[in-house]
Design brief:
Elements: H1 42-54, E1 58-59, E2 65-66, H2 74-80, E3 84-85, H3 87-91, E4 97-100, H4 117-131, E5 137-139, H5 143-152, E6 155-161, H6 173-179, E7 184-186, H7 209-221, E8 224-226, H8 232-241, E9 248-251, H9 265-273, E10 278-280, H10 297-311, E11 316-318, H11 327-338, H12 340-343, H13 361-374, H14 379-397
Parallel strand pairs: 1-4, 4-6, 5-6, 6-7, 7-8, 9-10, 10-11
Antiparallel strand pairs: 2-3
Helix pairs in contact: 1-13, 8-9
Length: 400
């Protein structure tokens, strides 16, 4: 697996740490927990290398976000804004494109959910400024940029928002966000907003009239609609209202693990019938199963196979939702603000400190492909679920 371009750049190194911004000790981007790897024989290894070489590898949700080394610094680090982006780790991930929300739900957490309009614009501007100083990643605006990233040894970052909460009730803000490079936006994040109900709400009122206007505007502009954090009725309404495929960028199957964060069969099938793609989630303590006592690649892939059997191989991808550092520490730090705990309710489990085999973006797609190869999946099917299905959906969505 070839590494991407990386020249040693670290976030905000054009500024003076301690003078221009507060510096925090950061988690390692490389083998933080020992680099779990699935063993392969020579034939399997060559197949893995060929798959990465010949196909555009896409994560529907991962993060370049680098966590502070010490968990007690988490909230302060997130609030101060000069957060580090893991260019080195991403350069070793094998990924060609990543749907990245730049942690918009976490940054400036002192504002409710970190999703107010000014916060979103500030966060985008700071991250774009940092990205402009390096050559490992590039901002993607269209499908041709994904091919260009692959050809030039870089990673295409697809700017996304976890939710449309920052729109409030201003429809033209969709256009402004598109102008600022946003190419994918969720309808809600766990809690209700002016568009619809999030998955943590006790009652789901479905997509609002304003939400329907937003869906139409996103269709007109060619912006991906994401329903990962929506309530069930809001999800179904959004799929019905959209003229284009709708994506579930990072979720799992409620048929395996009965929590609001997972999607019921009805929503999964409706998404697929509209031409959409479901990205399999691997954030800690989410895609668990009854047969897996610890969260690992095995439980994640159980969700993968369940959904493949339900909707077909042409409508499944991967959105692991990983980043560099202690993900569980972040969940704990922002649980109350972002209703994370409620989204995991409904099942009893012993908390896992990380997902074995899917710790961060550097190892996630690599181990997913290795797992698929060892299980005997064909080159064609692996190419579909690691990027081909997403490219097909984008060819229908990213058109004016």
């Amino acid at each position: 697996m070839k590494r991407k371009i990386y020249d040693g750049y670290r976030s905000f190194h054009y500024l003076a740490a301690g003078l221009d911004y507060k510096a925090f000790p950061l988690a390692s981007q490389i083998e933080r927990l020992g680099n779990y790897s699935i063993p392969l024989n020579e034939r399997q290894q060559k197949k893995v290398e060929r798959i990465f070489e010949d196909n555009i590898m896409i994560s529907l949700r991962d993060h370049g976000f680098v966590m502070p080394l010490h968990p007690e610094h988490t909230l302060e680090y997130c609030k101060h804004g000069f957060t580090s982006f893991g260019y080195e780790g991403l350069s070793r991930s094998g990924l060609d494109a990543v749907f990245e929300n730049f942690m918009d739900g976490i940054m400036n957490i002192s504002s409710r959910m970190g999703l107010k309009w000014d916060d979103v614009i500030w966060n985008l501007g700071m991250r774009y400024c940092d990205i402009a100083q390096q050559d490992t990643v590039m901002i993607a605006s269209n499908i041709f940029d994904l091919y260009r990233a692959k050809e030039t040894g870089r990673i295409a970052i697809i700017p996304s928002l976890e939710a449309a909460t920052a729109l409030e009730n201003e429809i033209d803000r969709v256009d402004i966000l598109y102008g600022f490079g946003i190419r994918c936006m969720g309808i809600t994040y766990n809690e209700a907003n002016t568009l619809g109900s999030g998955l943590s709400e006790a009652r789901d009122g479905g997509l609002t009239n304003f939400g329907r206007r937003v869906v139409k505007r996103m269709n007109q502009l060619g912006m991906v609609i994401d329903i990962s954090h929506c309530g069930d009725q809001t999800s179904l309404d959004t799929i019905e209202a959209s003229e284009k495929p709708v994506l579930i960028t990072h979720a799992g199957a409620r048929g395996l693990w009965n929590t609001p964060r997972m999607k019921p069969d009805e929503v999964l099938m409706s998404c697929a019938e509209k031409g959409g793609v479901i990205g399999i989630l691997a954030a800690p303590n989410t895609t668990l199963t009854k047969s897996s006592s610890d969260h690992s690649i095995e439980s994640v892939m159980e969700h993968f196979e369940y959904i493949v059997n339900l909707v077909g191989i042409d409508h499944v991808g991967f959105g692991p939702d990983t980043f560099f550092g202690d993900h569980v520490a972040l969940q704990h730090a922002v649980d109350a603000q972002l209703s994370i705990g409620q989204s995991h309710s409904g099942e009893e489990f012993d908390e896992s400190s990380y997902v074995l085999g899917l710790e961060d973006p550097m190892e996630a797609m690599s181990n997913i492909v290795k797992w698929l190869v060892v299980r005997g999946y064909s080159d064609t099917d692996i190419a579909k679920v690691t990027g081909g299905n997403v490219m097909r959906a984008l060819s229908k969505i990213w058109v004016k």
